[in-house]
Every structure is written in structure tokens, then in C-alpha cells.
Model the fold of this input.
Amino acid sequence: MYAKKRMVKIFDTIIIATAAGLLAVMVLNSCNDDLQNTVTYSVNEPVYMSFSEFRTPPPVKAAQEIVNPGKICLYGNYIFINEITKGFHIIDNTHHSSPKPVGFIDLPGNIDMAVKDNLLFADSYIDLVWFDITQPAQPKAAGRLKDVFPNVLPPVDNEYPVKEIDNSKGVVVGWEVTTITEEEKPPRYYPYPWNCPTCFYNMDAAAYSWQNAGGTGVATMTGSTARFAAYGDYLYVVTSSMLKVFALSGNTVTKGHEQYLSWNTETIFACDQKLFLGTTTGLLIYDIANPAAPARLSSLSHVMGCDPVVVQGNYAYVTIRGGNACGQDRSLLDVIDISNPSSPYVKTWVSMYSPYGLGIDGNTLFVCDNGLKVFDASDPLQIGTRQVQHFTGISGMDVIPYDNVLILIGQDGLYQYDYSDIQDIKQISVLSVTKK
Done:
């Protein structure tokens, strides 16, 4: 009996305490309804370019310094060098020993390029644009397809969050760090982080989001890290998860078939009615016997890593770079037998330091790895024992080998080499990057 009375008493006490607690919360919230708190935080404010300005045909400007080079494209005696997200440089390479910058096209958001006949195709944020390069030193805007690419934002070089994007204002071409001070009510039913204004900022998910950072007889080639490939009467473009097809007819470009790919597709190489796509997890092969609708043939998985690919004959050569955002720490050069493209397999591999782009011409394979490595590829299965030269002290990113001249783009410049004798390759010239 005593125990029963004691339990009733305890239960009554709990009810009274709970009621008192609820009353206190109601009183506090009533008081907080009129309480304003000042919070200060920094954000990346988007810098917009209006659509009218963004889509105004760009004129050829005077030659500019190369500061942040990206992809490269060869067209006859001219080299086009992407200035990452800014546009592209026009280089007269008539004399390999003295390449001469002759102009610059200001093209916001440009990363990739490819040439078909006398047209140069390039991305510009969300649009595909093309230029008539009948006179390569004076490209003329020839057309544009709007809104065909994902809305990729410029990189952010700090840890501040990005303010909400208003796509109606135009394209985002940069960021400005701004400090915001405003009055905010503390969140109801939650303790307010009085000494942590950025913690309060994190709660405001509704208002802001976190983001982190062929055909004319003229030689036309792109590097191995390209996402654009012109083949026949089509332009093939890969984004991280899509393959997009554009039909080319004179100066007319028509958006055609598109299909989903594996995530993290990075590069494309067109050869022998096939598309070879490099992804961070493997190689994809597509048949383009029907060029308007590529059909997947096969895939080959490999360790996680950044992955350009080139092809010659029955072999594909793939560099796999590990570390950083690319995956595990292992870096390799894979030699893949593609004699049966429906069933590719790795025949041999070579350890690498940190490889980037690569290129092959005849029996000579060039790999951007801790500079530039040159291999005798006459026997692909013995390539690991046939490194013939290694140029150090350069930061090679991608290469185009053609007619015994190797064009190499690096973070520090445009290099050219004579490889007519692979046992005695000689540097011809260097066009240096401006350091800032």
C-alpha cells in the first residue's frame, strides 16, 4: 500500500513538473517573438553577365598573355589554346621554332574545343557556339545553340557558402565575397547559438545553399583530355553524365540524340567508327556505325582515377591518375586490347607518378607524367621496358603529336619537340605562360 501511494505521488510530481516546463517554454517563446538578433556572415555573391551581353558575337581581340591554359586544338598551321573559362588564344605556328600569338577570342565559360572542316566548335557555359576559321587568325562567329549544356558555375576559391542563384539575371561569371549583417529571430524551440553566427547561417537552408568549390585535308586534332570530338558529320560532346550528339551540315548545327552515361565521364576519343570514353571508374566503348545514335558496346572497369584515353590499332592506352579528387593513390598506364571492342581487357600496365594527357603517333607514345615521358610502342606489351626519354622540369598536361612535331601544353607553357628520331628528341620552342 505504501509503495502504491509513493508511486502515485511520484507520478503527480512528474505531471506538475512537465506542466511547469511547458508553461516556461510558452512564456520564453512569447518573449522571443519580439526579440531581434543581429547576425553577420560572409557569402559568395554571384556576379552576373546579362544574356544579351553573354550572347553578343565576340570579336577577335589583340593577342593576350597566356595565364591559365587548358585544352588545345590543332588546325593546320594554327594552334588554339583555351584560357580556362575565359576564351581561347590563336597561335600562328607556321614556324615551330617561333610560335606567335596573333589574337584572342573572349568567350565566357569556355573549356573545350574541336574543329570540323573550317568550323571551330566551343562551349560557352550553357551554349554551344561555332566560328568560321577559313582565316584562322580571324575567326568569325557563325552560330550558337542556346541552353544545350548544364549550368556549370565558376569555381569558388574560398570556404564561404554561395548565395542562391537567380538564373533570370543571366549567367554567373564569377563571385564577390560580401558581408551581410541582418536582424534575425532566433529559431523557436531550439537554443540560439549566440556566439556562432555562422551556425545560425547553416540553419537557413531555405535561402542559401553550400557549394564548393576532319574533312578539308587540313590537319585537325585535339588533345586526349578533350570532351569534344568531331567525327564525320557529327560532333560528340560528353558532360559528366551525358553523351550529346550534334549533326553538322555546313554552317548548320542541329541538336540530336543524347543519352545517359556513367557518372564522372571525363574524356572522349573518336576512332574507327567508335567512341572511347574515359571515366573515373573505367573505359566505355560506343559504336557509331549509326553516327546519329551511338550504341554502347562494352565497358571495362579499373581502379578509381582520372582517365584520358587514346587509341591506335588494336590497343587503347589509358592513363589513370590517383590522389586528390581522382581516387585512390595508385597511378597507372593501362594497355588495353580492343581487337574485340565488345570485350576489351587489360594486357599490361605500367606504374606512373601522376599522369595526365597522352598521345600516340605510329610507334611513339607520349605521356604527360612528371614532365614528359616517351615510349617505344612498337611492341605494346613490352612498353613498360621501353621508355626512351624523360623530359623533366615541365608540368605537362596534354599533347598532340603530328608529323614528327609534338605539341605539349603545360601549366608553364606551350612546348614543341621534334621526334623524327625518338632516340634523340629535341625541344624546338617554348611559349611561356605569364605567372600571376
Observations:
- Residues 38-222 form one domain.
- The first strand starts at residue 37 and ends at 49.
- Residues 43 and 434 are 30 Å apart (CA to CA).
